[in-house]
Design a protein that fits this description.
The chain is mainly alpha-helical and about 120 residues long. The chain has helices at about 5-45, 70-80, 90-100; strands at about 50, 55. Strand 1 (about 50) and strand 2 form a beta hairpin.
């Protein structure tokens, strides 16, 4: 690929990334505003119903929250109920052990490329 073609792609990348970051920031602000409104409805105890041109349906569900990770960890290990956990690696913890020379079974290392573009 010619230098001019790479430069054109990097310019396109930089412009696209900048536009996305601006939109991401705006989306975060809008999400906070939405959550604030929903918090107000919850605090006011608004129930399902028809409100002018809006129909509101309120439902709830119980969501687990761990209050003692040591106790929960012991339970998971003793019961074998590993399905209660997410199956994903903590990259930094795994890589710290690999880089220290520790053998970690069932781990494969893939190459991930990182690009930093500066104008």
């Amino acid at each position: 690929m010619k230098t001019k073609d790479v430069e054109r792609l990097l310019e396109e990348y930089a412009n696209t990334r900048h536009a996305r970051l601006l939109l991401d920031e705006e989306a975060k602000k809008m999400k906070v505003a939405e959550d604030t409104i929903l918090d107000k409805l919850t605090a006011a105890g608004v129930e399902s119903g028809k409100y002018g041109r809006f129909s509101l349906q309120v439902s709830s569900k119980s969501v687990p929250r761990c209050t003692d990770w040591n106790l929960f960890h012991k339970y998971v290990l003793s019961s074998g109920n590993l399905d209660m956990l997410h199956k994903r690696l903590t990259e930094s913890a795994v890589m710290a052990r690999v880089e220290a020379g520790e053998y970690v079974p069932a781990i494969a290392l893939d190459t991930k490329y990182t690009y930093k573009v500066s104008p």
